Amino acid sequence: MNGIRIASLAVATAALALSLAACNTTNPRDRAIGGAAIGGATGAVVGGVATGRAGGALAGGAIGAASGAIIGHTTAPRR
């Protein structure tokens, strides 16, 4: 991957993360979905950049999505 493509992908991921983070919800299910989206996108970028292969991006995305869902669900405020 060339530097411009990596930078573009990083900017797009950051924009996605910020737009999803702006959604304020206290529902644990909604927080898990948002966490999975942010974690999956970030994990895919990191995995793809670190390995330079599609398999690394898929593995990073899967691990990031699972981690994000767990963290999002457990950090939701309880009513």
TrEMBL record:
InterPro entries xrefs: Gly-zipper
Keywords, comma-separated and alphabetical: Signal
Domain of life from the UniProt record: Bacteria
Extent of the signal sequence: 1-24
Domain named Glycine zipper: residues: 34-74
A Pfam family this chain is assigned to: Gly-zipper_Omp
Protein name from the UniProt record: Putative lipid-binding transport protein (Tim44 family)
Organism: Pseudochelatococcus contaminans
